[in-house]
Design brief:
Oligomer: single chain
Radius of gyration: 12 Å
Mean pLDDT: 88
Low-confidence stretches: none
Strand content: 35-45%
Strand order of the largest sheet: 4-3-2-5-1-6
């Protein structure tokens, strides 16, 4: 089972990935952001919204040794089928 860390308002280390999940109409969508060093812009991929499972798969494929943080917005509740979320 995949393990993720809940993203809070604080900074995360460069190289970390953040999966942001939000509501789009009546569906949950997401995207992946790779945090860059402070003097560079973060990378967001892909440019279009995707299903949560696809966002997590994309993040896992780009993870390397970096942690994956999850940002739940707009009252999105965590679904245990996505993996395990640490606070």
């Amino acid at each position: 089972m995949h393990k993720y860390v809940r993203h809070s308002a604080g900074a995360v280390p460069a190289g970390s990935l953040i999966v942001k999940l939000y509501r789009s109409g009546n569906q949950i969508r997401g995207y992946v952001r790779k945090v860059a060093d402070t003097d560079q812009d973060d990378t967001i991929f892909p440019g279009e919204e995707m299903e949560p499972e696809a966002a997590f798969k994309l993040a896992e494929n780009h993870r390397g040794n970096a942690p994956i943080f999850v940002d739940l917005v707009e009252d999105v509740a965590w679904d245990p089928s996505w993996g395990r979320l640490r606070q």
